[in-house]
Structure of HNH endonuclease:
Amino acid sequence: MSKEKVFGTCALCQKENVELMQSHIIPKAVYKRAKTFENSRFRSFYEPKKIFQDGEKKPMLCHDCEEFFSKYETKFVNQFLDKYLKNPFDNLPEVSKDTDFYALTVAWRILYDDLYVQHSYQDDSERAYLGEYEHKLRRFLYERYLDENPEESVAKPTFEMPDLKGKCFGEIIAEIEKYEKSKLPENISEVKNYMYTLSELGFSDVVKLFDFMIWGYSFYTPTRTKYYIISGYKDLVIATVYHRKRNILITGDWKLLRKAGSSETVVKKDLIDEMNVLIDQIRKRYPEVQKKLDENGLREKISKRYENQKKQDYEEP
């Protein structure tokens, strides 16, 4: 039975009443390389009864935007991921411009899902800045889409002067600045990608724990000056960071001030702290997960599913 088509607004190009594809948050190509057996399925770590055939996907993008992202996913696995998987103990492959752009596409999907599908940060004071981050990434990605698809140039948004009636002088200045900025190409100079292995971050003892995990989410630092989107697979961690310079930390605590910095050393320390939180959560939930696996013979069913199955041997894209 074919699945019912879903129509709505494309999250990237904002076209309305278009058919939405079942879009992967983290690309299918990554899940494909995580398969142990040809008939492998994926399960939520915390909810092992929840099954994904080839990774989590949701109605999100129209066909054209899906194909646009797909092109960069193929470049990523060819130029970076497959080279990394072939020699995971060597230095990471060189990060090309295409790989860097790919990382932004995944980061945006994760953040969009967190904000508007999962509805995270609902009562959080930082939600406005995370929304600003999502908008900044979306606009930058869509501008690249229009550059590569000039026939779509008619789809470029038009900008109207805001209604300034009844607003005070400060609000008028802010609205005019916003209007002027909206006509310029999106500036993502405050956004940067970082790629590390867990071993580089000092977690070589838990690499096996993440060997078959694919994960991604967003968070912000206690200083409220940096907003992170991270994802991981095997020993690889990719972080896209918004160093929001307009957020100024006022404190006499020198330790906190150092954490507000934007150097790579500070970023690595933030990621180490976050990985410790994530690992601690996994350890705390581990007994609960094991109990769920033992319910209704689920563990035995999973084991039997893969008896005598052929190991997965994926084809190059």
The longest strand covers residues 226-233. The CA atoms of residues 294 and 300 lie 8 Å apart.
